[in-house]
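Hi R.,

As promised on Friday, here is the backbone we talked about, encoded as structure tokens. Could you run it through your design pipeline when you get a chance and send me back a sequence?
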């Protein structure tokens, strides 16, 4: 995706998570927007969350792009995102309550599919049925994301643009609600929903959303042609990608860098640099295979240390994240499918004080050694991790801003990770605040 630029066109960066999400993308996007004129979210819904800490103040975002925290930066929600109108307006109101100008800076693609109450009901009912039937939960957040994407690919979704046309919206809503009510009242053994409250609520929200509706792809094209830099912000992580993740324990959208083009309406030639965000260890929320997972219940254990020192709870759900050593073989898979130009390692400071650091560099699978995460979730479940061990460090890395400020053993650890996956480490995050960042190569100058 790297290319030579000519004329006045801007330089664009794609930020993606390279694990199972929760890698610290929000902080990095916020840091990079100092060089961007626009930030666009290109997939997912409000099942993802980014926590930003700016001058010690913590702000949680779910659907609004992280660039909203920088004055003057235009923010876009691309067509690849599914939008719950109630939630997006509540999030806007919350951010306005802390003094941010949101409505004049946020544009939402008219092509975004809508998440409506019956999507949420179906999501909850399916997970409940899977649990009672013994099939096991997928681990969704219950926010209607999956059912909304299903309607999109079935070509029956209500979209943001439909909110501008009450009669069209009413007709499509009746048809779609009838379809989902059959499932709710039958196979899913749940209560069907009434039409009128859903219609009335949507129409009440429509007028607030109308000024923010836009042709996002064309707006981004004009910004780029005028020389503006664009930052594309992904949600979740590459190993939750619907095609390339640990299926079926995945999200319902494409989280990889290539979808920045399709999910926002720009050409793939405008994706110039891909920054992969990677924790210095590995976490996962919800169900699914996790080869390097460690037990977390015992105080004093490594898993307990990672969980407590790292404050590992989901931004949106509050669920505790499963924790384990860095899985470099999984990271290699993410590097391949994203075409990663450079990595940003986050939460390095969480490893401070551990006497030994381990990195999963491959697996034993059916009597053979493999050095990259398999594609089949059942095969991943059968994988036994193979580790390289490194001496830890007792010095604090928290807040370090220069490579040379890191302990020697921390630098050796990062250099080994870089060597194994074949992608350079361009940034290191040593704490939650903007200033806690070591820059080795700037994505907007690469």
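Update: got your reply. Pasting your designed sequence below so it's all in one thread:
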């Amino acid at each position: 995706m790297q290319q030579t630029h000519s004329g006045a066109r801007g330089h664009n960066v794609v930020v993606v998570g390279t694990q199972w999400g929760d890698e610290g993308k929000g902080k990095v996007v916020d840091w990079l927007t100092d060089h961007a004129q626009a930030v666009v979210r290109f997939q997912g819904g409000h099942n993802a969350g980014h926590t930003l800490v700016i001058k010690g103040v913590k702000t949680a975002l779910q659907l609004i792009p992280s660039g909203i925290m920088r004055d003057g930066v235009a923010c876009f929600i691309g067509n690849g995102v599914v939008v719950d109108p109630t939630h997006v307006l509540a999030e806007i109101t919350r951010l306005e309550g802390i003094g941010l100008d949101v409505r004049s800076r946020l544009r939402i693609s008219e092509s975004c599919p809508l998440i409506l109450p019956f999507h949420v009901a179906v999501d909850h009912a399916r997970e409940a049925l899977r649990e009672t039937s013994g099939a096991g939960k997928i681990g969704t957040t219950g926010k209607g994301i999956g059912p909304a994407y299903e309607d999109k690919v079935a070509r029956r979704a209500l979209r943001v643009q439909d909110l501008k046309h009450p009669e069209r919206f009413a007709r499509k809503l009746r048809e779609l609600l009838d379809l989902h009510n059959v499932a709710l009242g039958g196979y899913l053994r749940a209560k069907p929903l009434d039409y009128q409250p859903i219609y009335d609520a949507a129409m009440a929200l429509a007028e607030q959303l109308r000024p923010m509706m836009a042709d996002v792809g064309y707006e981004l094209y004009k910004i780029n042609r005028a020389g503006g830099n664009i930052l594309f912000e992904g949600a979740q992580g590459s190993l939750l990608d619907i095609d390339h993740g640990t299926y079926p324990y995945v999200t319902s959208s494409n989280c990889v860098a290539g979808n920045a083009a399709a999910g926002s309406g720009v050409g793939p030639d405008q994706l110039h640099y891909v920054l992969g965000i990677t924790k210095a260890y590995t976490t996962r929320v919800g169900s699914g295979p996790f080869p390097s997972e460690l037990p977390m219940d015992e105080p004093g254990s490594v898993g307990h240390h990672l969980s407590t020192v790292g404050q590992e709870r989901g931004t949106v759900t509050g669920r505790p994240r499963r924790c384990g050593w860095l899985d470099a073989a999984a990271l290699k898979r993410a590097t391949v499918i994203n075409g990663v130009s450079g990595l940003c390692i986050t939460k390095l400071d969480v490893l401070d004080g551990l006497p030994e650091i381990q990195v999963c560099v491959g697996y034993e699978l059916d009597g053979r050694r493999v050095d990259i995460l398999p594609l089949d979730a059942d095969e991943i479940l059968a994988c036994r991790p193979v580790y390289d061990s490194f001496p830890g460090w007792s010095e604090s890395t928290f807040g370090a801003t220069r490579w040379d400020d890191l302990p020697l053993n921390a630098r050796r650890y990062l250099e080994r990770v870089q060597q194994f996956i074949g992608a350079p480490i361009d940034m290191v995050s040593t704490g939650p605040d903007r200033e806690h960042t070591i820059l080795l190569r700037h994505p907007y100058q690469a």
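One thing I noticed while checking it: Residues 166-185 form the longest helix (20 residues).

Thanks again,
M.
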